[in-house]
Amino acid sequence: MALPIKARAWQLKSDDISIDIVPGKIANSYEIIGCGKSGTVYKGDWHSQMVAVKRLHRVKEEIEDPEGDNFQRIKNEIAICLRLNHPRIVPFYGACIEDIQQPSFVTKYCEKGNVLDYVKHHPKVNKLELVRTSMLYEISLGMSYIHRNFIVHANLKASNILMGDDRKPLIGDFSMSQAKVKGQPDAIPQKNLSGIIYDAWTAPEIMSGGPLKYSADVYSFAITSWEIYTQDTPFSDFPEGPSKRRVVERHERPVCPSKTIPPSLKHLLELYWAPEPSERPRFVKIANQLKPLKSNGKYLRAY
């Protein structure tokens, strides 16, 4: 069910949005920041401000039925973005749906890229465990805020978390997110979801067809934390990937190398990716668990 949104509060004019051309390339070689299932993100300009412009992938059915379920999902994403305003969330400037064949979202441009790329390109960060733990703490604060607003992110991973100007993480990409209606059950049946992703960050109960709950984000957070510390692809040692047989039935999880993941964090990850959703803590508790381990911030300013 799409959330109600205030008309014109978020609408941008297509003439005010431009996509950057890659210097030295032929015309129409646009500067791509990233590409995902829902769309391609470009570096662009809006009112002389550098921004990220996500142009959504559209299919024939959406174009022929612009008010159908797929378009309702776009409006739902807009409503969710408008609801969220927090230092650890990518700022949302608005959307343009004048061209129904290619709607666009405009957000803050984060030149430092996503958290995983940032860690990989800053070797000194790898030597400072406190810096990475501080990142996890800041992400948990953002996720706690998202859940307090009755929203399940449903696609949390390192590639969807950007580094802000202050070198602190910003949670983005709410294309898969779901808002819970106050007074209704906490669980969202999968039959009410569309376009749900099954990958290495997907909680085992979702793989099994179970309903979407806040605890699914906690599982994804555990995998994301593992990503940031190891800089590896989750389940890359599984020939068949994160299969239902291994993740759901055998309760297998990514291996935590002792050289990169300290015992204190390994213990927490085991809590966060517990097979039983009810055993995973809420993000407010996760933040309290990570706070004693995090950096005081002075290291972050150095890189």
From TrEMBL:
It comes from the Eukaryota. GO terms for molecular function: ATP binding; protein serine/threonine kinase activity. Residues 27-294 form the Protein kinase domain. PROSITE patterns: PROTEIN_KINASE_ATP (PS00107), PROTEIN_KINASE_DOM (PS50011). Pfam families: PK_Tyr_Ser-Thr. Keywords: ATP-binding, Kinase, Nucleotide-binding, Transferase. The keyword Transferase applies. ATP binds at K54. This is Kinase-like domain-containing protein.
